From TrEMBL:
Record keyword tRNA processing present: yes
Pfam families to which the protein is assigned, alphabetical: Methyltr_RsmB-F (PF01189), Pre-PUA_NSUN2 (PF25376), PUA_NSUN2 (PF25378)
Annotated source species: Chordeiles acutipennis
Residues engaged in binding S-adenosyl-L-methionine: 152-158, 183, 210, 236
Protein name, entry field: tRNA (cytosine(34)-C(5))-methyltransferase
Top-level taxon of origin: Eukaryota
Domain SAM-dependent MTase RsmB/NOP-type residue range list: 34-398
Length: 765
């Protein structure tokens, strides 16, 4: 039958059942439960961002308010169960409900809860992420000093987890580690940027490469160039996705063994390239959302075999207690889409040997097979804990890979030669040794000359701190041409007024400031960590960087008359705050409520203490800091830092809409009704002001549509609090700032990506 205009998909696939029954991936007596679970919709899960100082406040708000309100509800005849924490996720920071995502989106009774989820997701305070997808980052065992590569990162939920782990200590604004998040799909890279940007980290870089041939990067170590090896690598490869049948119901009718046979080679090449770039002693997690051993154990077994002892599977049986898992399997067969089985490579007819490769079969040598410890892999089955299906393997690197025993140092050899050697090795099927020979003296001399010629063009740009795409790779056909990354020179006159105005600490790393323009006025200033600066400056000719850096200042032409042309940006305030020693105003919780619910409140509305502090301060950009009072436990118990602007007679906050709503919720202010009123006022304003953003998409939340746009309408979230009249001169200044804020907040990928993110900003992971 037809429902809602679409034919209902029948959740049956005879070949699927025949294949997995034969392989015995499900314990005896559990097959019916396994299939029944696959036919049920996947429950909604959410994860609270763990490194934020207010994670505990969000958890308290969820438990005491939103979850309690769900308890007595019935939706479509189904009683809503109280959400439960995932037993294996640390500190109760991940929760699941018996509600599917579809019910959450469509049910009027759940509108308030859904609005909360959307708003908090946009702020980066929670992630709506599938439960099994949270496992690989946890098993990576990340520390703040680790250099991390996420090889196939889009859409970015796992990348977000990795960023959180780097920022485990919120008192350290610049962890020594970083995340390089890669994806082969140029458009999906912008979705990745959107996900990562919510977390406001200076330690994330998004790049666009084929993961199976991702280039070796160089870093400067005490004046010498060396190849960058990663401490941790997440290798969540493209897969057939038959573990996702509960949410991607198309898989039911499209599933065939052909998908796995076609992907196996790519998965093995990506995993091989990953272990090549892994540091000795490092850890790589290989994962898929597939149940098929051709994509799972076959890839791991082939990788272990050709590593000749350089790799081993880690025993993670004691990690994530509470997670129900099955061991990896050691015996399997290969089946074609016509149902024909093969147990060994020698049985495969020559006309099928392009479809089926030797690496797809299990190892026959019993001793070799035992030494591989394939049972250390993790298989997650849907019916065990009401999740999707998943596979994870944790690999440890004990020594260099046999085909590059002498791990190359760039200052000894040509970077190009090193890259060619390693990519060739990565793409070889048999994994035979390709040990690089030592170059002769004459070759060394020639190499040095060639290197000097190669570097002559790039050295000048590096001195100027310019990192742009290679001239030969304009990517006109395959994606957008990126603006360059230009680091501020040490003697740039732009910085002196900023340093003076905000009384920046002498330890402030001004060398890490960058812009996205070489000519004309610099509109935005961004910041990266020292380690990412090193990567950027040394790899601009070989790496396509989509995005990096966190916005810390925005140009405001009116600010020049007050001593500084740049105002603080909320995105980067938690990174900047430790270095700022001037223009900080401590405010009480009542002041914060006024700032967040009124657009341009008079100074007279604030507490007498705040009025005194503001009295002797010049107009311009300011920092508003709320410190919790431990003697008032009923008040918000986490610190808040807001960017603001002091006018002649008013004080205002420059905070994106969803962040405003977040802080108000944490303070116990009801914002759901405020939103209804706000939508009514917005519709009136739209009739009067034609240049307002059209909001016509059906079924979308305001947060989904506006996504990071801070307009005047976004500032009006008040609980029926009327806006104060403001002096015309002051209002003029404030309005100009507002206009600047509106344009700057739309820069998901800095200045150059304003139009590109529009297509992907509403996609959820």
């Amino acid at each position: 039958g037809w429902a809602g205009g679409y034919p209902e998909i029948v959740k049956e696939n005879e070949l699927f059942e025949r294949y997995y029954r034969e392989l015995g991936i499900v314990p005896a007596g559990e097959w019916d439960a396994f299939m029944a679970a696959l036919r049920e919709p996947l429950p909604a899960t959410l994860r609270i961002t763990g490194y934020r100082s207010h994670a505990k406040e969000i958890l308290h708000c969820l438990k005491e308010k939103y979850f309690r309100e769900l308890q007595e509800l019935e939706v479509d005849g189904q009683k809503v169960e109280m959400p439960q924490p995932l037993s294996w996720y640390p500190e109760e920071l991940a929760w699941h409900t018996n509600l599917s995502r579809k019910i959450l989106r469509k049910s009027p009774e759940l509108e308030k809860f859904h609005q909360f989820l959307v708003s908090e997701t946009e702020c980066g305070n929670i992630s709506r992420q599938e439960a099994v997808s949270m496992i690989p980052p946890l098993l990576l065992d990340v520390n703040p000093h680790h250099k991390i590569l996420d090889m196939c990162a889009a859409p970015g939920s796992k990348t977000a987890q990795l960023i959180e782990m780097l920022h485990a200590d919120m008192n350290v604004p610049f962890p020594k580690g970083f995340v390089i998040a890669n994806d082969v799909d140029n458009k999906r890279c912008y979705l990745l940027v959107h996900q990562a940007k919510r977390l406001n980290s200076p330690c994330i870089m998004v790049v666009n490469h084929d993961a199976s041939s991702i280039p070796n990067l160089q870093i400067d170590v005490d004046g010498r160039k060396e190849v960058l090896f990663y401490d941790r690598i997440l290798c969540d490869v493209p897969c057939s996705g038959d573990g996702t049948m509960r949410k991607n119901i198309d898989v039911w009718k499209k599933w065939t063994t052909q998908n796995s046979l076609q992907l196996h080679g790519l998965q093995l090449r990506i995993a091989t390239r990953g272990v090549e770039q892994l540091a000795e002693g490092g850890r790589m997690v290989y994962s898929t959302c597939s149940l098929n051993p051709i994509e799972n154990e076959a890839v791991i077994a082939s990788l272990l075999e050709k590593s000749q002892g350089a790799l081993e599977l880690a025993d993670v049986s004691s990690e994530l207690p509470g997670l129900k898992r099955m061991p990896g399997i050691t015996k399997w067969k290969v089946m074609l889409k016509d149902g024909q089985w093969f147990e060994e490579w020698k049985d495969v007819p020559s006309n099928r040997q392009t479809q089926i490769r030797p690496t797809m079969f299990p190892v026959k040598d019993e001793e070799k097979l035992k030494a591989m410890n394939l049972e250390r892999c993790l298989r997650i089955l849907p019916h065990h804990q009401n999740t999707g299906g998943f596979f994870v393997a944790v690999l440890l690197k004990k020594s260099p890979m046999p085909w590059n025993k002498r791990q190359p140092k760039v200052h000894q050899k040509l970077p190009q030669r090193t890259g060619d050697t390693e990519v060739t090795a990565a793409n070889s099927d048999n994994g035979s040794e390709c040990v690089a020979e030592e170059p002769t003296l004459a070759e060394n001399e020639e190499s040095k000359k060639m290197q000097e010629l190669q570097n002559s063009d790039t050295e000048q740009s590096k001195k100027e701190g310019v990192c742009g795409p290679p001239p030969s790779k304009k990517m006109k056909l395959f994606g957008f041409k990126e603006d360059p990354f230009v680091f501020l020179p040490e003697d740039d006159p732009l910085f002196l007024p900023i340093q003076k105005f905000y009384a920046l600490d002498p330890s402030f790393p001004k060398m890490n400031l960058l812009t996205r323009t070489q000519e004309g006025k610099k509109r935005q200033l961004y910041m990266v960590s020292k380690e990412l600066r090193n990567v950027l400056l040394n790899n601009s000719e070989k790496m396509k960087v989509i995005n990096t850096g966190i916005k810390v200042w925005s140009r405001n032409s009116d600010g020049e008359q007050f001593g500084c042309a740049f105002r603080l940006a909320q995105e980067g305030i938690y990174t900047l705050y430790p270095f700022i020693h001037a223009r900080i105003i401590s405010v009480c919780i009542e002041d914060v409520k006024i700032l967040l619910t009124q657009e341009n409140p008079f100074l007279s509305k604030f507490s007498s203490e705040t009025q005194k502090k503001v009295k002797d301060m010049a107009m311009g950009s300011i920092v508003l800091k709320y410190n919790p009072d431990p003697e008032k436990p009923e008040d918000l118990q986490c610190p808040i830092v807001l960017c603001g602007w002091q006018g002649k007679t008013s004080l205002r906050a420059f905070v994106p809409k969803n962040e405003r709503l977040h802080y108000l919720r944490m303070m116990g202010v009801e914002v759901f009704k405020a939103k209804r009123k706000e939508e009514e006022s917005e519709s009136k304003m739209e009739e009067e002001v034609q240049h307002r953003l059209a909001q016509t998409e059906e079924g979308m939340d305001v947060e989904d549509k506006e996504h990071d746009l801070v307009t005047k309408m976004e500032a009006e979230v008040g609980e029926g609090l009327s806006h104060s009249p403001v002096e015309s001169g002051s209002m003029e200044v404030e309005n100009k700032i507002e206009d600047l804020d509106q344009s700057s907040k739309n820069a998901t990928n800095h200045v150059s990506q304003e139009s590109k993110d529009a297509d992907t900003s509403n996609v959820k992971d």
